[in-house]
Amino acid sequence: MARTRKTRGESLILRYLVLGSWALVCGLPILWFLTIGFRPRTEIITPQPIYWPTFSLDAWHLLVSDWPIARYLRNSLVAVAGSVVIDLVLAIPAAFALSRYEFKGRENIGFYILSTRMMAPAIVAVPIFFLFKTMGLLDSVWALMLIYAAINLSLVTWIIRSYMMDIPKELEDAARTDGASDLRILWEIIIPACLPGIITAAVIAAIFAINEFLFTLLIASTSRAYTMSVALANFTGGSDGVIYNAIALVSFIAFVPILILVILIQKHLSRGLTMGAVKG
Amino acid sequence: MASIQLQNIVKRYGAFVGVQHMSLDITDQEFLVLLGPSGCGKTTTMRMIAGLEHPTEGTVVIGGEVMNDIDARDRDVAMVFQGYALYPNMTIYENIRFPLRMRRVPAGEHDRLIRQAADMVELGDLLDRKPGALSGGQRQRAALARAVVRQPQVFLMDEPLSNLDAKLRASMRVQIKHLQRQLKVTTIYVTHDQIEAMTLADRIVIMNKGAIQQVGTPDEIYSDPANTFVAGFIGGPPMNLIDGVAEKGRFTAPGITVPCSAALRGPVTLGVRPEDCQIGGDNLEGSVYGVEPTGDVTYLTVMAGTKAVEVKAARAFRAEIDTPIRIGFDVGRLYFFRDDGARIRGDA
Prior knowledge:
The structure holds 2 protein chains of 2 kinds.
Chain A: H1 2-37, H2 58-66, H3 69-100, H4 106-115, H5 122-134, H6 141-166, H7 169-177, H8 182-193, H9 195-211, H10 214-219, H11 228-233, H12 244-264, H13 266-278
Chain B: E1 4-13, E2 16-26, E3 31-35, H1 42-50, E4 57-62, E5 65-66, E6 77-80, H2 92-102, H3 107-120, H4 136-148, E7 154-158, H5 166-183, E8 186-191, H6 194-200, E9 203-208, E10 211-216, H7 218-223, H8 228-233, E11 240-247, E12 250-253, E13 256-259, E14 266-272, E15 277-293, E16 298-304, E17 307-313, E18 324-329, E19 335-338, E20 343-344
């Protein structure tokens, strides 16, 4: 008895050791970024490592005084949140139709939707630029919202569709004989049943959107519509050279909303990702 | 309350025929069981009555009204599914309430109706649980309550007991029959289990390959089967079907001789139920293949030539395998079938 307890204790220590090392591997770059963000510029590019750097708010002051960081962050959040909402509003009914209705060319349409992800985004960059220019949508957060939504729509549709296909048809039949219309079935039965899938799709879309660079650079030509990802790039040029501590700080700020999001919905997300994975 | 008529129903899926030219008249308050092996079209038939499938040809009439173009949700039909189909995100209370909400039953009535339905299936204290927290039997009762709550014209039950263990199945069976008698609602019940069919039904419809084989009361189906399919499907163990030759008033097969009508000639199939066989006699000569005591009776398998024949013996009967044995048949209760499976009646 004592012996088994001991081995169990040992295996627990081992387990924590392995998990702890892995957490360190994952956490170290983030931590390192944070320390860079709060160092003076002079302590960043040195041949000798500095183990106990001086704490400095230089980068923070630079961001707050010279850069409209709050606006960039707001632009990012508005564009990303809006695009995810647009995606869900369009993708949920589309996924419902693709997974539940029998119609000619259903598989083809499904594949077509997915195939829009298959080309390199740069191919459509120029046409999209002119399209948005003609519509007078350049340099606006609303345009970014539309672009992000368009980029992620196919993926979101596809993820939600695969979840909906896993919901037993019996549930829908039961609801129908109980007297529910198609919209009712979607709203009261299907959406709650595939909520983990919807959340997974939304988080993935949000991550893609917040990291989007190419179209944002194309459409956002002034700081009016800059997002975090493009603002970040602006620290790499100019007369001041590369401002590493500011880059580190902005990266961290851009990363925090996603981190919070993922922690909040962790339970759904891990279940969602594995559920999709084991599906045949 | 309603009668149901199926008039020459056909269901095709491309080239595959699911149900072929089926006509059936179900009277008001009847408990009708559709019985057959999987893929025989019984569930498809039920789904056409529910409105979840549309017949390729023919007419579905419920309560005197043609239903072909009426959507499932507008037919006053409640269905119980094999997998229960409880809504996982709702509590049992909300599950039972769902049909009431959908059918715009006044909200003030809901609570009374839900509790009444839940009490009927003895589920009263589980109403605030989610389906995931219930056992199989409790889920099935919740599904029944959801069907009962809105007092539909017709109940449809699609193998509702097949996911339950044997003991629970037996007790739920009685409960379902009691409920149906109490509510007096026309009920159609699909199963592949002949015991369920025999115990529940007012009438049984036996189906195979999309076609009706026989319609009748359990007694009729048991004592007067229309063909070898019905004979071999009903009874536990089912009727022995022995291929042989009839000539000059005698039927013979390896190890087996019985008298038959002199008019019978050529290859025929003899049918004899295990309970119409007695140990000792001169109709079958073979050897013991196996003995299966069940407590109240003992089933004996006898090899006659290469044919295994089931015999229902007294409960104390025991024998070693390969012992030679003679069996007598109750010659007044023999059945003969043509080689295409159809029953040969009388002297024909």
